[in-house]
Design a protein that fits this description.
The chain is α/β, with parallel strands linked by helices. The chain has a single domain, classed as TIM Barrel, CATH 3.20.20.30. The chain is built from nine helices and twelve strands. The longest helix is centred in the middle third of the chain and has 20 residues. It is globular.
Length: 288
């Protein structure tokens, strides 16, 4: 297990927030020191489409990075996603973090008339999608033949602000963890908060092995945890919840395990006050 070389980030998950609350909450998060805001990508459910709403929030804010938890590859052609990502990154000055997943809900995919595929097929499709995105961002034109996705003399212009868009992969299985280490800029643990430190380090070790095999430094790959956020006198399980001192202790424990990015879902009621207090009593002390 290698300790991260990245600064510690905190982000928020927009789960449960009505549209009219998203921009005010995003601005409150910016002011409190949160780095990012994540949006769900579950089209059949009763929520706003993830890419559209992320774009709407991004253009009405100034600092916050927009991302998803996760953006599922089967729903969109990856060459078009490369163009969409480059465009949003360009118009926001580089404020997109592309969090990708293979698509874990079969009913969500088949409801929209798309083939779900076997685990191996979905793994290969995600691998192909990332290769296409990287190729389009880095080259004037690009050719690629994958299992399901391919491009011929394709181009994406303008390019992303920094030449590429950072990619985080949602992963929990061995193959996907190794792929994450080999090709991605970050890893978000699927299926919520770790059950134990042993479970987390076991997964992290597999991701790091993938990075080392690919000749990469695993310490520069971001490690993201999804969980609940709450600051107050009531101690709660899962995520970063409790008093400031309890939260800081949990942050320290996970930072020692290699985590460098905490993405938190706060209850919608009183969320701005929660974000302000969390920023003052936790984020400011972590970043001191």
């Amino acid at each position: 297990m290698v300790k991260s070389k990245n600064p510690i980030w905190f982000g928020i998950n927009s789960r449960g927030l009505a549209y009219e609350r998203l921009v005010p909450v995003a601005k409150a998060a910016e002011a409190a020191g949160f780095v990012s805001m994540a949006f769900a990508d579950r089209p059949p459910e009763d929520n706003l489409e993830g890419w559209t709403v992320a774009t709407a929030v991004a253009v009405q804010t100034e600092k916050i990075i927009v991302t998803h938890s996760t953006l599922n590859v089967p729903y969109r052609n990856p060459a078009l996603v490369a163009k969409m990502a480059a465009t949003l990154d360009f118009i926001t000055g580089g404020r997109l973090l592309l969090t990708l997943g293979a698509g874990g809900q079969e009913s969500h995919t088949t409801a929209y008339g798309m083939s779900y595929g076997t685990p191996g097929e979905r793994y290969q499709d995600l691998k192909d999608a990332i290769a296409i995105m990287h190729g389009l961002w880095k080259n004037d034109t690009f050719d690629y033949q994958g299992r399901r996705y391919n491009v011929q003399s394709a181009s994406v212009d303008p390019k992303p602000v920094n030449g590429t868009v950072p990619i985080v992969i949602g992963a929990a299985g061995p193959r996907m963890l190794r792929l994450t280490g080999a090709v991605a800029d970050g890893w978000i643990k699927n299926m919520g908060w770790p059950e134990s430190s042993e479970q987390y380090t076991g997964l992290l070790t597999q991701m790091e092995e993938g990075a080392e095999k690919a000749g990469r430094d695993p310490a520069v790959i971001r490690r993201v945890l999804n969980g609940a956020g709450y600051i107050g006198n009531e101690s709660r399980a899962g995520g970063l919840q409790g008093t400031a001192e309890q939260i800081l202790q949990t942050v320290d424990e996970y930072v020692e395990l290699g985590v460098d990015y905490f993405q938190l879902a706060f209850a919608p009621e009183g969320v701005e006050e929660q974000l302000q207090q969390f920023g003052e009593e936790v984020i400011a002390r972590v970043n001191r």
